[in-house]
Amino acid sequence: MASGHSTLSLEDELNCPLCLELYSDPVILDCGHDFCRECIVKKWEDEAEAQCPECGQTFPEKTFKANRALGKLVKKSRNISLNLKVKGNRPYCLDHEEELKLFCETDKKLICVMCLDRRDGRSHKAHNFMLINEAVEIYKEKMKGNHTSFKQKKNYFQEFEEKQEEKISEIKEQSNRLQNHITNEFTKMRDILDEKQKGLFNDLMSQESDVLLKMEMNLRRIQDNLSLTQQMLQNVEKRLEYQDVYMLLKEPPPDEKSSEEEFHPTITEGNLPLAAFQGPVQYTVWKQVINVISPVPASLTLNPSTAHPRLLLSDDLTVVSYGDVKQDVPDNSERFDTCVCVLGSEAYVTGQHYWEVQVGGKTEWDVGVVKESISRKGHTTATPDAGYWIVWLRNGNEYKATTVPRTRLNVASKPKAIGVFLDYEGGQVSFYNVDNMSHLYSFTDSFSERLFPYFSPGINDDGENSEPLKVLPVGCQEN
Which of 33, 57, 131, 152 is the most buried (most CB within 10 A)? Predict the structure, then answer.
């Protein structure tokens, strides 16, 4: 069973049963109970025999032993609960009961003058110490410095907090704008497809109505003649049942051929125009929808005036390949004399544009967009700052964007054609794998001058890269 002492606090357990205060110089009796030395001595002064005030046990002599372990515990408890004992308004040393006037900087504690020359080996004499007032001023100055430093640090982190929150808000707003954009684009497509579907349904219903009208008119004429014939048949059957010959002969039998107009029924044929509704419906609709798609895939041609002398262009200016012989062409200001490339014929200064370039199984190529003012002569490092927003292939499997430093692209499958999207006002140039329209990379920048499509088939590399680049017609990809 739990005793009443189990509910007492540690400080209550360290109180003397006689004075009810913390033990002072505690001693232990032979029965095991503890008391202050002064309390037990005073208690026994008026008693004839030594008796424990707690349990009543008597002893032959008035003797006891000092309980040093209990004394240390009491001292520790006193230090914890009080930390500094105060006389009036001034703290004093628990060991020497002297006023604390000094601060030991080495141990970071308040001490009295007596603490400087302790005999227990814990003297502060060799430590750095100063008057409390001086220590307070020094600490205040340090705290002021800390206050300024932490205030600056707080402002520093608050500034970054605000900037990060702004970035988070920007991303959320951008995501909302993109969601709305995607929704609007698909809504446009669905509206167009719904309109085309309704148009086809209406055409089909009209064709069905025309064909069925002729068939149903013929059916009604057949039904009218069938009804008349049934009536005549019933009349004949009825007269055949007559028993009276006079009644039978009274009316001559109806002549089947005596009708004013003999009707010869036929089946009216009719067919729906299956080719219009069961043919390549998706392709037919796509050919109609392509005119309302934005951006409309561009049908580009190449500008021969910009082509490097070793480049060969097809007659329709849609195919470029590297030639073994340098051609004798005019060295005009537009022509590239070092970079093996050619530009598109049309420049863009506004709007959104998209085109596709067949790269096939080539091991090296460059495609993208450049500004009109790029250098056409000599060597140039292709970067956005220099006016190049392009991606390229090297060594058959190294796809990179011309950032600084170059950005290695993670291409899951080797594309046969590259799609290039330019949003002039939006400051965007994006690249796609036309095979599955997966996104490869996007540049974001601001444009202020005319931009041209850029093409480079690379060198032949001993026949390994002899395949040409081809600008694909709208909506087409060749295998």
Answer: 33
What is the rounded average pLDDT for all residues in the chain? Answer: 85
Residue among 35, 6, 4 nearest 22 (CA): 35
Q: C-alpha angle with apex 19: 16 to 21, nearest 5 degrees?
A: 60
In sequence order, the 6+-apart residues with CB closer than 8 A to the CB of 81 are 11
DSSP 267: P
Q: What average pLDDT score do residues 411-439 get?
A: 92
Torsion of CA 342, 345, 348, 354, to 10 degrees: -80
d(CA 126, CA 265): 136
463: alpha, beta or left, given left = phi > 0 and alpha = psi -120 to 50?
left
Distance CA(96)–CA(87), nearest Å, equals 13
The pLDDT assigned to 3 comes to 36
Query: Which has the closest alpha carbon to 293: 474, 427, 473, 439?
Result: 474
Token output for 12: 């209550």
Nearest to 405 by CA among 382, 374, 373: 382
Q: b or e along 304-322 (b: 16 or more beta carbons within 10 Å of the residue's beta carbon)?
A: eebbbbbbebeeebbbbbb
Helix (H) / strand (E) containing 433: strand 428-433
The C-alpha atoms of residue 253 and residue 103 are separated, in whole angstroms, by 150
Q: Which residue has the tokens 């050919």?
A: 287
Dihedral in degrees, nearest 10, Cα atoms 311, 317, 320, 323: -40
Q: What average pLDDT does this structure show over 349-365?
A: 94
* Cβ proximity of 305 and 332 under 8 Å: yes
Copy the structure tokens of residue 5.
């002492």
Q: How far is it, in rounded angstroms, from Cα 53 to Cα 187?
A: 97
pLDDT in tens, 319-353: 999 998 899 999 999 999 999 999 999 999 999 99
Q: What is the CA radius of gyration of the chain?
A: 54
pLDDT at 119: 47
Terminus-to-terminus CA distance in the chain, angstroms? 93
Residue 446 CA from chain centroid, whole number? 24
What pLDDT, on the 0 to 100 scale, is given for residue 4?
A: 36
Torsion of CA 254, 256, 260, 261, to 10 degrees: 160
- Non-local (6+) Cβ contacts of 438 within 8 A are 412, 432
Q: How far apart are CA 392 and CA 464, in angstroms?
A: 16
Angle in degrees, 0-180, between the axes of helices 132-240 and 281-289, rounded to the nearest 10: 130
Q: Which amino acid is at 293?
A: I
C-alpha span between 369 and 348 (Å, rounded):
10
The pLDDT of residue 107:
77
| More confidently predicted of 399 and 184 | 399
Provide the pLDDT for residue 118.
57
